[in-house]
Amino acid sequence: MRFIDTSIGKKVIMAVTGIALVKFLFIHLIGNSTIFLGPEGINAYAKGLHSLPPIVWGFRLIMLLIFGIHIYFAVQLTLDNKKAKPIGYSVDKNLAATFSGKTMIWTGLIILGFVIYHLLHFTLQITSPYFIASSHPDNFGRPDVFKMVILSFQKISIALIYALSITALALHLSHGVQSIFQTLGLNGDYLMPKIKALGLALALILSIGYLSIPAAIQLGIISL
Amino acid sequence: MNLTLFVWRQRDKDSQGKLEEYKAHDISPDMSFLEMLDVVNERLIKEGKEPIAFDHDCREGICGMCSQVINGIPHGPQGKTTVCQLHMRHFKDGDRIYIEPWRARAFPIIKDLIVDRSALDRIIQAGGYVSVHTGGVPDANAILIPKPDADTAMDAAECIGCGACVAACPNGSAMLFTAAKVTHLAMLPQGKVEAARRVCLMTEQMLKEGFGNCTNHYECQAACPKGIKVSFIAKLNREFIKAQF
Fold first, then answer.
1. What range does the domain containing A202 cover?
2. Are A203 and A174 in contact (CB under 8 A)?
3. pLDDT tens-digit profile of B149-193?
4. Nearest CB partner across the interface for A102, out of B98, B170, B173
5. Which partner from A57, A106, A210, B57 sits 20 to 30 angstroms from A163, CA to CA?
């Protein structure tokens, strides 16, 4: 049987792509945090990023491919699992399963929807409501990403969409990160509680980090 | 004690089953759960009705035959206890008790609460053995085994193959069962020889039988009457990844 047809093989692929996605979340968060430095920070960051088109596009395509593989196997495994348990119990009781664990496919699909929206919003700038950074250079001739982000997140509806999606991400990570270790066999009786705590900590650090940007703009801490 | 039972009744594999209500009167708190069902069945037989079919054998908590989901929990509310060792003192007078069979696609219902668990036997047949020469019994301690390894192997060998892990798993996965068997043999020098082949064959058989995939909910560990731990699943995953190289 080929590795990718086996149950554990599919899960190993989910775990490895999961690691890449968690790493991306950290890199992306560090990049985004330049908004706290004002227009000088994020506009310079955006300019720097786009000064190397082959690298940035190569990176984006690889990330999309990894994202696609992660989703493909997630859907396949979930459908398999539904088939393996066609009838549930009349008394539905959980002894250990968590809300975040049981909703992985749903939080995952919310994240997928969010990523599509997020790309249309800030990357392709199709749904950016007020302002297209790429056609509005700042005083230094750079796309004014700072103004685009501020104007977007000042709108409560957009800030809420981001907040809800990041909550889904936090739930997804709190089960996902510890699952990576278990699936790759990097777990044992001694490590188990530590890995669970690590998963929770990573989920909290990343979600608070990402939430801080729309929150700071809504609270007027960062403004034009 | 007087109880109201809701028991899954199903004539055979292909029939439609449903929960039926039964009254259990004058139950002693000292009875085991299966003895309580015996009392109900005796009355049903006297009334000329079909008794409730359920699996049981040793009634000592070691054979792994009893298999009932009681109020949503395989083997009932008491931890690390098989149904046969569960006593009625853990219930209250007037309780409503739901009794259902193990649920999983790989465990077709034979009748009422009895399911066909031979899929687990076929997983064992696929690789849950060591190939040894027949003949004289080797001397004890001829192969030295570190105490921690022997302990881990013994902990894994505690699995009685009842299938509660599959019943508890929201995905109907047999990973805990397979992990216990793989760990039990992979910890010992006699089992290491065939470890790579074994883990591949057993997990492949698991898939063929229609068991689901593990999503790390750890319901299995919580339901296991023998305290088999999910760290064995990590060990199984490790063995499987190692076997690829």
1. 3-81+100-218
2. yes
3. 999 999 999 999 999 999 999 999 999 999 999 999 999 999 999
4. B170
5. A57
The residue whose two tokens read 């809504």 is A218
Q: How far is B62 from chain A (nearest CA, A)?
A: 23
Hey, what CATH topology would domain B117-243 get? Fumarate Reductase Iron-sulfur Protein; Chain B, domain 2 (1.10.1060)
Compute the distance between CA of residue A103 and CA of residue B170 in angstroms, rounded to an integer.
Answer: 12
Tokens of B77: 């509310």
C-beta atoms of B241 and A101 within 8 A: no
Residue A29 lies in a domain: yes
Number of domains in chain A: 1
Query: Which of B225, B154, B155, B235 has its CA nearest to residue B198?
Result: B235
Select from B73, B203, B241 the Cβ nearest to the Cβ of A7: B203
> Which two structure tokens, joined as six digits, stand for B144?
């030295």
Alpha helices in A85-153 (DSSP H): 99-102, 104-118, 145-153
What CATH number is associated with residue A51?
1.20.1300.10
Domain annotation covers residue A94:
no
CA distance B39 to chain A (A): 24
Would you kindly state where each structural domain of chain B is located, as residue ranges?
Answer: 3-100, 117-243
Q: Please state the rounded mean pLDDT for residues A113-126.
A: 92
- Cβ of A6 within 8 Å of Cβ of B207? The answer is yes
Structure tokens given for B161: 């193959």
CA-based nearest distance A170→chain B, Å:
17
A130 band by pLDDT with thresholds 50, 70 and 90: low
Instruction: Let me know if residue A9 belongs to a domain.
Output: yes
Q: Kindly state whether B146 is in contact with chain A, defined as any CB-CB distance less than 8 angstroms.
A: no
Q: Residue A1 pLDDT more than 90?
A: no
- Domain B3-100 belongs to what topology? Ubiquitin-like (UB roll) (3.10.20)
Name the residue in chain A with its Cα closest to that of B218. Answer: A96
Looking at every residue in chain A, the average pLDDT score rounds to 94
